[in-house]
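Q: Here's a chain of 303 amino acids. Please give me its 3D structure as tokens.
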Amino acid sequence: MKPHYYSVNEYIKDTYGCKLYKLALNGGMSCPNRDGLIDTRGCIFCSAGGSGDFAASAMDSISEQIDHAKALISSKYHGSQYIAYFQAYTNTYAEVDYLKSIFTEAITRDDIAILSIATRPDCLSLDVLELLSELNKIKPVWIELGLQTIHGRTAEYIRRGYALPVFENAVRELHQRKIQVIAHMILGLPGESHEMMLETANYLAHQDLFGIKLQLLHVLKGTDLAIDYNRGTFSVMEMNDYIQCIGEILEILPPNMTIHRLTGDGPKQLLIAPQWSANKKLVMNTMNQYFRDHKIIQGRNYQ
């Protein structure tokens, strides 16, 4: 059955005529929120892997990482085209010559159809933007920006480290260069109400975005968020509340915005809460049934 939302898989099938599998890569970079430029503690929810817990080892070359990742999924994916996904930490936080080297190594391979780069909006200098623009002329470049929330008090609590206008400027600069932007939003951040989450979604609905990743807040071992959770300072979302919120968000997003994620895969060995999120099959089946029962249609309430 066709999904009630415009999934990235549907977009890829429409555009490329086949499925593309994403390969998580590690460029060996750090983050200004960890190396002392902004902070040394990282975002409050971020694990030691810097959101790249499933990425390859930075000790290997990019081509070696790609070949290794392909071998790992060869039993379940038999296609010939992939997305090179630089995931761990902040993937434009390095000298531009180094970025050019690793990104070019990935994007010029015949088996790579798309270059996807996760980064921060405050790590997009003019020379980096020009590099991304040049790469985008070779093959499509996707830039993922971790906004998480529009609410200043929450942003301060999670130690995001930049103000909302920085995000808006990054989106504008990338859009002017015809580079597709995907924004990250986290649901269930401490102190945020249902209405606050919808406000963030409505804001993102009116930005020049190609796509959005909707992510449940995970409490992971070894994070400062875990300390607050164990102190009882906040509670995590229940599955039914999360699914209801996702349904409402989909209906206020424009119908042509690609949905790259509706939940998340926290590393099971690190996940403290919510434990229900570890059963992704159950979550997605319940979510899709909710969408059918409530006739959820992306963009129905977009204005």
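Q: Can you summarize the key feature?
A: Strands lie at 21-25, 82-86, 112-119, 141-148, 180-187, 211-216, 219-220, 258-261, 271-273.
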